[in-house]
């Protein structure tokens, strides 16, 4: 027996933990370096987030090297919280496997891991992620590719899809009610009132259809109810108790009247009605009507004398079908489906057929009113059934560009079946929801047709074989496929202005459809990041194929435009549209900045006559030479007459003269017109010089210097109001000059009055000194 002795650690040294590193083969390292160098040179470094072994294998086969993304250190959110956090916009995504902990290392050796270590500091040029917010599209370079578009929630969320398709009339001459069930937002007040009106109107049409089918020889309603009663224990006795009760025929009259008023409103016959007009039925009458409707439809009560209304009901329904394309799928039970706005895989979905229950749900949950992310949609009560079982269709399509819009449609799809036989007499999710994530929790019904698959999935080829057995194989290529393609294109057109059109991006979507009895497809929702989990034999074959074909379209086709694209076919390519100079509401205004306006130059109000003086000083003649013509007697005579005429009038400047301070930043040279007067010498306008020849005023004149004189560039914040009055004491025609100073607060330059005043002062000064020249 061996004894294990514990050796104490050496003093002064810490205990060390050694990591056993793997031995790296030299040849393997050389091969990895050569492959990495080639990939870096060709910009073939990719990053994948999530369990996508097909994408990894396809990229590696094309010479790409993976740069592994760091694994999140925070704990993963719970399963039912993953959807709201899937993207920054809360769009729908039905990928069942969000975490990477379920991924199995499929490499046979450590070569790929070694290559990933060598490119850990390199730039990735291809991103494939499950979550849109994992990569910021706005920070990527033009040569970096990613599998998501920013702001695609306008059609990948239930609320966004509901709102986008309402704008279809602006993009295409089509009616969304022909391929998308009526949908309303419970959180919006206007949508809530519109839903209440739609629920009541649908109850009226359903009642008319009930009368027509019950008494026109169509026993489908009674047959399905009897089958349901036979399978559901304890429900037949209550119906027998109500068998003798009857509902009055007034319920049919009210239904006919409501439908008639609706048709009149569509043809604008109610345009002259006022707001005070009494509605067809009051709130209390509507409450009684719906209670009787529930008794007839859900409890089996009969209506008195309804046989007499068969023809009127038939005629009214024919008129309503012209305006209501969904009447054939509305059914009789008036079932509506309530969906959370940002969840998928059937989580949180409820089916209800009573208005008070739906409104109580809205009133109880304040979150519905706050975020407006819950929608209520009309349930398709009469879908196409395969062996009395409901199903829906998952169809893939790929968008490689938004400007121009380029859409690729996948040729293959698959069907998802319910585990229980279809019936509108029950609202259980196992009957009405076909999502594989929900149906996998239920056991197939013992009454289920054995021809249906145990995995609850069919490929489209299997469905076409079933159609061929009933002689309707041509309807797949003639009705189903064109209808799905048209619905996808029209939906994308309505959302084109909301999605950011990045050239190096692409995205794979999964659309869910239901087929009516006439095989017309009805769009239910569009999912981002559709599931690629091989949960059944059908998805194990189709999901890897669609991933590989996606790489062919987005990678191989860039090198060779004629390359094979697998199952994808190009169904729509829009003409290129010029990108506007703005994104969203951020507008760009083009123009020049507003400059400070220059002072306007006006012509003087009083046209001055030329001076008659021919003999004057050289300085004065230089100022007024443009207005003096010496040696002509006729001009002096005209000047005398002008002064004589002026002396007999009273001239008063009633308006104040206002000057603007000088702006030293950018002086402007004034260009005076030829008809304007000449500026006098500022030195001769000094108040002290004027006082030598004039009588002193009552108040002393203001002491000014030359710099303080008003001029074009040195205006003063005060003004002189000058009154020219005839002076009787001076026979020579001289005038008394009176000056009054008025302070102003907001000076503005009025050049025409200032120039006229200066000219008058010059003339007055000249007259006082020289006197009027005699002829």
Automatic annotation (TrEMBL):
User: Known catalysed reaction(s)?
Assistant: L-glutamyl-[protein] + glycine + ATP = glycyl-L-glutamyl-[protein] + ADP + phosphate + H(+)
Q: Name one Pfam family in it.
A: TTL
The ranges of region (Disordered) come to 70-105, 692-718
Spell out the Gene3D superfamilies in the cross-references: ATP-grasp fold, B domain (3.30.470.20)
Which compartment or compartments is the protein found in? Cytoplasm, Cytoskeleton, Flagellum axoneme
Q: Does the keyword Chaperone apply?
A: no
Query: In what ranges is there compositional bias, type Acidic residues?
Result: 84-105
Keyword set, alphabetical order: ATP-binding, Cell projection, Cilium, Cytoplasm, Cytoskeleton, Flagellum, Ligase, Nucleotide-binding
Q: Which GO terms describe its molecular function?
A: ATP binding; protein-glycine ligase activity, initiating
Q: What is its main location?
A: cytoplasm
Question: An example of a Gene Ontology BP annotation on this entry?
Answer: cilium movement
One GO term of the cellular component aspect?
microtubule cytoskeleton
Per the record's keyword annotation, is Metal-binding included, yes or no? no
Protein name (record): Tubulin tyrosine ligase-like family, member 3
């Amino acid at each position: 027996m061996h004894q294990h002795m514990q050796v104490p650690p050496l003093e002064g040294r810490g205990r060390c933990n050694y990591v056993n590193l793997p031995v790296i083969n030299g040849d393997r390292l050389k091969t990895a370096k050569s492959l990495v160098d080639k990939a870096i040179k060709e910009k073939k470094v990719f990053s994948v987030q999530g369990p996508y072994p097909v994408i990894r294998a396809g990229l590696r086969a094309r010479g790409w090297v993976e740069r592994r993304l760091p694994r999140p250190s925070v704990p993963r959110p719970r399963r039912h919280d993953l959807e709201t956090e899937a993207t920054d916009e809360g769009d729908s995504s039905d990928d069942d496997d969000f975490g990477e902990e379920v991924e199995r290392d499929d490499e046979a050796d450590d070569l790929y891991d070694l290559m990933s270590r060598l490119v850990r500091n390199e730039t990735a040029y291809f991103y494939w992620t499950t979550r849109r917010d994992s990569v910021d599209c706005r920070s990527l370079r033009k040569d970096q590719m990613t599998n998501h578009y920013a702001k695609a929630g306008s059609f990948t969320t239930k609320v966004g899809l509901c709102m986008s398709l309402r704008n279809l009339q602006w993009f295409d001459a089509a009616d969304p009610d022909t391929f998308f069930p009526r949908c309303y937002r419970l959180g919006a007040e206007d949508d809530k009132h519109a839903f209440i009106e739609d629920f009541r109107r649908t109850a009226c049409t359903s009642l008319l259809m009930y009368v027509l089918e019950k008494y026109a020889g169509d026993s489908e309603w009674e047959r399905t109810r009897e089958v349901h009663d036979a399978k559901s224990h304890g429900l037949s006795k209550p119906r027998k108790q109500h068998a003798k009760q009857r509902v009055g025929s007034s319920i049919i009259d009210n239904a006919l009247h409501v439908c008639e008023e609706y048709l009149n409103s569509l043809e604008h016959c109610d345009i002259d009605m006022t707001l005070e007009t009494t509605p067809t039925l009051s709130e209390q009458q509507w409450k009684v009507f719906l209670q009787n409707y529930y008794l007839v439809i859900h409890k089996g009560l009969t209506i008195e004398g309804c046989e007499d209304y068969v023809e009127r009901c038939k005629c009214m329904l024919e008129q309503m079908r012209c305006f209501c394309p969904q009447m054939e799928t509305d059914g009789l039970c008036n079932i509506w489906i309530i969906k959370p706005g940002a969840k998928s895989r059937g989580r949180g979905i409820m089916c209800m057929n009573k208005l008070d229950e739906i409104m109580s749900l809205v009133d109880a949950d304040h979150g519905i009113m706050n975020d407006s992310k819950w929608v209520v949609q009309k349930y398709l009560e009469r879908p196409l059934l395969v062996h009395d079982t409901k199903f829906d269709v998952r169809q893939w399509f790929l968008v490689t560009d938004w400007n121009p819009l380029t859409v690729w449609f996948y040729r293959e799809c698959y069907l998802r079946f319910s585990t229980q036989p279809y019936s509108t007499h029950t609202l259980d999710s196992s009957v009405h929801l076909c999502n594989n994530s929900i149906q996998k929790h239920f056991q197939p019904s013992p009454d289920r047709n054995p021809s249906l698959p145990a995995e609850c999935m069919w490929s489209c080829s299997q469905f076409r074989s079933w159609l061929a057995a009933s002689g309707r194989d041509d309807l797949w290529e003639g009705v189903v496929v064109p209808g799905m393609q048209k619905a996808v294109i029209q939906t994308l057109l309505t959302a084109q202005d909301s999605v950011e059109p990045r050239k190096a991006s692409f995205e794979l979507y999964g659309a869910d459809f239901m087929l009516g009895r006439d095989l017309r497809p009805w769009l239910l929702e569009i999912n981002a990041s559709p599931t690629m989990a091989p949960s059944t034999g059908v998805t194990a074959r189709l999901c890897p194929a669609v991933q590989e074909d996606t790489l062919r379209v987005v990678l191989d086709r860039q090198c060779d435009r004629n390359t094979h694209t697998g199952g994808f076919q190009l169904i729509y390519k829009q003409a290129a549209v010029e990108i506007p100079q703005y994104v969203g509401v951020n507008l760009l205004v083009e123009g020049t900045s507003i400059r400070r306006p220059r002072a306007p130059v006006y012509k003087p109000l009083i046209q001055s006559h030329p001076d008659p003086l021919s003999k004057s000083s050289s300085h004065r003649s230089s100022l007024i030479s443009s207005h003096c013509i010496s040696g002509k007697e006729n001009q002096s005579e005209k000047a005398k007459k002008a002064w004589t005429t002026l002396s007999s009038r009273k001239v008063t400047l009633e308006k104040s003269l206002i000057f603007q301070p000088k702006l030293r930043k950018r002086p402007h040279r004034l260009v005076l017109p030829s008809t304007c007067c000449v500026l006098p010498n500022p030195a001769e306008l000094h108040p002290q010089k004027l006082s030598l020849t004039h009588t002193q005023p009552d108040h002393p004149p203001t002491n000014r210097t030359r710099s303080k004189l008003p001029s074009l560039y040195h205006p003063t914040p005060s003004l002189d109001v000058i009154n020219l009055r005839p002076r009787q004491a001076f026979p020579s025609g001289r005038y008394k000059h009176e000056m009054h100073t008025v302070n102003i607060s907001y000076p503005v330059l009025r050049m025409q009055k200032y120039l006229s005043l200066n000219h008058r002062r010059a003339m007055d000064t000249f007259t006082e000194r020289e006197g009027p020249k005699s002829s």
